[in-house]
Design brief:
Length: 285
């Protein structure tokens, strides 16, 4: 393995050596959403289905649960209690009950908007998780502010930060180098990290995907990535391998859209329909 300052390139050939060897597809539980951001859970959930979730469970703010169930008829949807401002409340942990412990993978964060409620929710949810956990969006901010929240799932976390969230995870340190930042976050939180195409594992292994482009910075794209990781983890126990696969599939889906949308007209929802085509191409070459 190359040293951390020279990551191993993520290529189609490498990923084909890492095809999941498990045929069973487990349950993915996605927890997120709010009054103001109801669609993030939908993006993550469909992404998880596209990459291997056998069963999908979506947990979101109660006012949007029925609509979400109609929009994603493949999923079981759970309505969660809200705060007065429309954020998912910490009391959601009581509603989720055994779902967290039974999930093959847990994705928390897409669409959550209240940092205090999110931190309190993680404090109650993460000790109940038995499988790998993907943290995104406000869940990353909560972890950065309260690193001890990750203790129950140390070694079982995947973090998918953008550069702003990465700064929180580094305790306020500016992100000047994506490779060095990803390695530092992985070490600090004992987690696998995908930061802007760089995947770092806590044991020092590092990979980099050069397939991505500026169009993937479109709103909601990070929710899709988190769901892709969650879906792959439902059928592959290797966190680093699943995260490399997810990042490459995400980037290749974006590449397929460029001829039709350009780099500035891309929508995150459009990535979802490209994912199956990318997976077929990667697995058949």
């Amino acid at each position: 393995m190359p040293p951390p300052d020279r990551p191993e390139p993520i290529t189609s050939a490498l990923l084909r050596e890492w095809l999941p060897d498990r045929e069973d597809h487990g349950t993915v539980l996605v927890v997120g959403g709010s009054r103001r951001v109801p669609g993030a859970v939908l993006l993550s959930g469909i992404a998880a289905l596209r990459t291997g979730a056998g069963t999908l469970q979506l947990a979101t703010a109660d006012r949007h649960a029925s609509g979400l169930g109609l929009a994603v008829p493949e999923a079981m949807v759970v309505g969660l209690p809200e705060t007065g401002s429309g954020a998912v409340s910490r009391e959601a942990a009581d509603v989720l009950g055994d779902l967290v412990g039974d999930a093959a993978s847990l994705v928390v964060g897409p669409g959550l908007v209240d940092p205090d409620e999110t931190a309190a929710l993680l404090e109650r949810l993460l000790p109940a998780a038995r499988g790998p956990v993907v943290l995104d969006a406000f869940a990353l901010g909560a972890l950065g502010t309260h690193p001890e929240l990750g203790d129950p799932v140390r070694g079982r976390m995947v973090l998918t930060p953008n550069t702003v969230e990465a700064k929180y995870l580094l305790g306020g340190e500016d992100v000047d180098d994506h490779v060095k930042a990803a390695v530092a976050i992985a070490d600090r939180h004992d987690a696998v990290v995908n930061l802007m195409g760089v995947v770092a594992a806590p044991d020092g292994r590092v990979w980099q995907d050069a397939t991505g482009h500026v169009g993937l910075g479109t709103s909601g794209s990070g929710d899709v990535l988190a769901g892709l990781v969650g879906g792959l983890l439902a059928r592959d126990d290797d966190l680093a391998r699943a995260t490399c696969w997810a990042g490459h599939v995400h980037a290749m889906a974006g590449q397929r859209l460029v001829p039709r949308t350009g780099l500035t007209g891309m929508l995150a929802r459009e990535l979802l329909d490209e994912v199956p085509h990318v997976l077929v191409e990667l697995r058949s070459r």
